[in-house]
Amino acid sequence: MDHILYLYNTLSHTKEKFEPFHPPLVGLYVCGPTVYGDPHLGHARPAITFDLLYRYLTHLGFKVRYVRNITDVGHLEQDLDEGEDKIARQARIEKMEPMEVVQYYMNRYHDTMRKLNVLPPNIEPLASGHIIEQQELVKKLIDNGYAYESNGSVYFDVEKYNNKNHYGKLSGRKTEDLLAASRELEKQSDKRNPLDFALWKKAEPQHIMRWPSPWSDGFPGWHVECSVMSQKYLGNRFDIHGGGMDLLFPHHECEIAQTVASQGTESVKYWMHNNMVTLNGKKMGKSLGNSITLEEFITGHHKLLSNAYSPMTIRFFMLQAHYRSTLDFSNEALQAAAKGLDRLMEGFKNIDKIIPAKKSTINPDRIKKELYDAMNDDLNSPIAISHLFDGIRDINSVVSGNESLNSSDLVKIKKIYHTFIFDILGLQEEKDDAKGKGLLSDLINLLLMIRIDARKRKDFETADRIRDELSRLGVEVRDVKDGYEWKIN
Ligand code: ZN
Prior knowledge:
Blueprint: E1 6-9, E2 14-17, E3 25-30, H1 41-59, E4 63-68, H2 86-94, H3 98-115, H4 131-143, E5 147-150, E6 153-156, H5 158-164, H6 175-182, E7 197-202, E8 218-220, H7 222-234, E9 238-244, H8 248-263, E10 268-274, E11 277-279, E12 282-283, H9 294-299, H10 311-319, E13 327-329, H11 331-350, H12 364-376, H13 381-399, H14 407-424, H15 432-456, H16 460-472, E14 475-480, E15 483-488
Helix pairs in contact: 2-3, 4-7, 7-8, 10-11, 11-13, 12-13, 12-14, 15-16
The chain binds zinc ion.
């Protein structure tokens, strides 16, 4: 491996040279989704960020064991220790078994990730499949004096831990500040201290997802699963732990505390966090009414979207920003990304049109070096993409006869572009089929917008005709509060 890769470590706030514990093996753990709803834009960012990392490490010759969990138990509302379990809540709303909800949304998640060409992890453990291991960790923390039982639940003793360690070292928080912020929020509680977090929760009588334990019939706290599953599959010391910046606190902070309190040392060498996605400059959220699912992006079927966007457009758009920058989605930005991606793919195809000359006026090694330098600098994909575009300009100049390439340089250029576009950035040639589907969605949406205008004018004849004709073609239209929904039968 002749490449030196630098990765930004959230723990040290610096870019560090990447040196795994046992090269060429690399242990990579990424916090996966809590599966209680359709995957949305926020899910695509960590998935694509760590897919890029996984692909690049693999390309450099590392043998990566990539573990990404599925949270199917213990993640309570608002990421707190009180409130309803997110999955149990969805099960109640949809009148399904909790594990039915998990399976349904996990399948949806996998389908969507496949469309985005996100490679599956090597191991995808479920929290509910590791209850015994989680109980073992809780026992160990009680034995070590860092956890206590209270009314059937078990909590981590943050104050005791913080006497010798720094609770807040990853997120840069101080317990005094945290305490001041939490005091008013905490109502009646079994905790000794408001900062303590749940390791095991006693289940209320109506709580369905429950397991027997020495303390109560209950369920594990959210943070326990990742400490347990990362170590089970990657060992007590492993290389990279990743996730979204929203998980930095409390989730990852609590993971560190649990690990240090149970084994005496931290297990993770490099902590990596992707930044968040905003929509038209605003935070996204179900309650804000601007949470768009990935499926809605792909069909273009959402009132905030002016047209459908292919999965590769979404992927390319995400890669055009550095993973540690915030990324703002808007129709204009996505349309620009779609055009850019077309230009890149066209440029790649143009390489085949080049007739080799005797000598080269372009140096492929320079482009190659620029591309690797960008990726080695904390996966700087936007810079790599800009170099790809610079190279495309050169390629097009060769095609038009203003520059030239000899046959060996031509082979080199083609290989470099193929490697970076398809293997490392993970882009795919979109089949006309996918493009056709996007166009089809756009046309249906266009007709339905005309129908809304017709109804506003009280031209019900036209409105009904559009609905009936679409129905005859197999497109079922349903009127909803802010517009319409449709599906192809
Ligand atoms: Zn996690």
